């Protein structure tokens, strides 16, 4: 199967078979028969993989079936195989993700998670940059995702597969994160489709519905992860106050600046969590 011949959105294509093929290519390129934990690094988290361990191999996303080069500034177009200390275990770290607003369809959005499972991972850590609804969470504050509201109108599950999402964001993993950083708060993440930022009215709606964080990713990946049995840890980096919470206009430059300022804390947090899992 050639990379150029793969169309994840072709209804005759089995997305799980493509994930298995992608995992085989990753194993060949990294020299690792399996990986143990996967991390998806969202906006503001680009440098966070550096403290996990030694990078043993780097692979371009575009060289792996079903993947594409990064489409968002602040993301990396490569995935890395990283040694987790001296444990003999490996982390598969994705430097970018596919977003719904790119127009590629839902299957590409969750392909990295399915590939991680096919590569042997039992846990996935999903990170993102987001808008905060709590004024006490200043830009640069990491917040654990306790639950989510999927307002994208989409699902990665096809057919009558009724997946229980009661404890989608694994409580045990959130406890591990709090052992690393007891100051971590929790919140409900609300996914909109984007790419436009939310209006103040939409932010008020999200808050009324119980949301604490707003963004354009993560929930579909988390659902796909639970479908295949992965444990899920979600962490948002508040990069700005959401529209209407602050009187400042929103910009992607602000997201990048907040991520750079919080890079050290985020890197230490992720390294500490991965080291304990």
TrEMBL record:
CC terms in the record's Gene Ontology section: cytoplasm
Keywords: Glycosyltransferase, Transferase
Catalytic reaction annotation: a purine 2'-deoxy-D-ribonucleoside + phosphate = a purine nucleobase + 2-deoxy-alpha-D-ribose 1-phosphate
Listed GO biological process terms: nucleoside metabolic process
Stretches assigned to the Nucleoside phosphorylase domain: 36-274
EC number: 2.4.2.1
Top enzyme class: transferase
One Gene Ontology MF term: purine-nucleoside phosphorylase activity
This protein's pathway: Purine metabolism; purine nucleoside salvage
Positions of phosphate binding: 43, 75, 97-99, 129, 217
Function: The purine nucleoside phosphorylases catalyze the phosphorolytic breakdown of the N-glycosidic bond in the beta-(deoxy)ribonucleoside molecules, with the formation of the corresponding free purine bases and pentose-1-phosphate. Cleaves guanosine, inosine, 2'-deoxyguanosine and 2'-deoxyinosine.
Family per record: Belongs to the PNP/MTAP phosphorylase family.
Protein name as catalogued: Purine nucleoside phosphorylase
Species: Intrasporangium calvum (strain ATCC 23552 / DSM 43043 / JCM 3097 / NBRC 12989 / NCIMB 10167 / NRRL B-3866 / 7 KIP)
